[in-house]
Design brief:
The chain is of the alpha/beta class and 382 residues long. The protein has nine helices and 17 strands. The protein has helices spanning 9-12, 16-20, 27-53, 99-112, 138-153, 167-178, 219-236, 262-267, 358-368; strands at 62-65, 68-77, 85-91, 118-123, 155-165, 185-189, 206-211, 243-248, 277-281, 289-290, 293-294, 305-311, 314-320, 325-329, 340-344, 347-352, 377-381. Helix 3 packs parallel to helix 9 (358-368). The two termini are 16 Å apart. Residues 1-20 have low confidence and may be disordered.
Length: 382
């Protein structure tokens, strides 16, 4: 249900004076301060992760969140300069089986793919379960892994790629849409899609790989069906939902490494952190932010959506299933030296200049932990 549609118009009309009172930063001042804030965050992150990630002792590497621990193995390919390296996160198979079998799958994953360039990371799943790569606690572990690699190993946050085989493919089916704002591209190998929605892949290039004879749990049929769903989404939205589907003739669960062709396809894409068209649907594990949007934590519910587009300095919201929506803005998305207009279902709910502010920059840098999501300005629609 679109909650905003039923609120009184007076609650939707934000006062421009509330958002423009005082003197904001100029574009030059904002850019300089943004660089400083990001630099401070990089130093703090290096202090936190550097002793582990720069120690050279692979057996000590892990990211943790409370009692959840994810051991890490990585190597570096190519000679990309620091700050522009790619990051390849490669999820092993196994799943709901023994520790020994999952450890063996982890060892296999370490050598399964070799990108031409980048930091190749094979993490060890924190648990031994079919959904080991997509349980709720793992979102934070992925985020921490990316932060550590950006700060300590020169990864470009717009060049982070996700892939996984078998149970790792199960994880990609779920984590690619759920955290689509983190990845440059994703590739699913031999996994089961379950009931996941593909709507959030609007701005994320996505590959599907499955053997024609991989009939366990109907993986072959379901992967083919999901490929057709992606075809339909792309037909309806030709500028989005870029994808490739390969149902490999004569192959079973093991595709004889022919799926390695995914890597050069993925590498041609970089993340757009500020897409001008967003489709965001909450999945089983709920997330409060997506690209440059944020919703109230106490209103998150699976299936709730936000849909919007940006044309020039006008933001057109066509669906919002929340009572409030925060729009974090930057000069790469709109011209903050001019008035910004927000429309909801054809009705203007805000028009005014939005100030660039230091506190917004620091809050978003600290909260998101991603240099691209260090936003200087915000508008909250109630």
């Amino acid at each position: 249900m679109n909650i905003l549609r039923f609120l009184p118009a007076v609650l939707l009309l934000l006062s421009a004076a509330d958002l423009t009172a005082g003197k904001g930063l100029s574009r030059a001042e904002s850019d300089k301060l943004r660089e400083q804030v990001i630099g401070e965050w990089m130093k703090q992150t290096q202090d936190e992760y550097g002793p582990m990630f720069l120690s050279g002792r692979m057996e000590d590497l892990c990211v943790s969140n409370g009692e959840d621990r994810m051991p890490i193995w990585f190597t570096v390919y190519g000679n990309a300069p620091m700050g522009d390296r790619s990051l390849w996160i490669s999820l092993h198979g196994g799943g709901g089986t023994t520790q020994e079998i999952n450890n063996g799958q982890w060892e296999n994953q370490k050598r399964l793919y070799q990108p031409e360039e980048g930091v190749y990371v094979a993490p060890r799943a924190p648990v031994n379960a079919w959904n080991m790569w997509c349980q709720a606690p793992i979102d934070v572990l992925y985020e921490k892994l990316i932060r550590a690699m950006v700060a300590c190993h020169g990864v470009n946050p717009d060049k982070v790629y996700l892939m996984g085989y078998s149970a790792g493919g199960d994880g990609v089916w779920r984590m690619a849409p759920r955290m689509a704002d983190y990845w440059a591209a994703a590739s699913m190998m031999a996994g089961h899609p379950g009931d996941v929605s593909l709507l959030n892949l609007r701005n994320l290039p996505f590959m599907i790989w499955c053997g024609e004879n991989d009939a366990a749990y109907n993986r072959n049929k379901l992967c083919a069906e999901r490929g057709l769903q992606m075809d339909s989404l792309e037909r309806d939205c030709p500028e989005g939902y870029r994808h490739k589907t390969y149902i490999m003739p004569g192959k079973g669960h093991w595709m004889d490494r022919e799926d390695r062709a995914a890597l050069p396809w993925m590498r041609q894409f970089v993340r757009d952190p500020y897409p001008r068209n967003i489709v965001w649907q909450q999945e089983e594990v709920l997330r409060p932010s997506f690209y440059w949007l944020q919703v109230p934590g106490d209103e998150m519910k699976r299936g709730r959506q936000v849909r919007l587009s940006v044309e020039g300095n006008t933001i057109n919201i066509t669906r919002c299933d929340y009572s409030r929506l925060t729009l974090y803005l930057c000069d790469e998305l709109v011209n903050l030296d001019k008035k910004v207009t927000v429309m909801l279902n054809g009705r203007r709910v805000f028009k005014g200049k939005v100030l660039r502010q230091e506190d917004v920059m620091r809050r978003t840098m600290s909260g998101r932990g991603d240099p691209r999501y260090c936003f200087p300005a915000m508008v909250e629609i109630r």
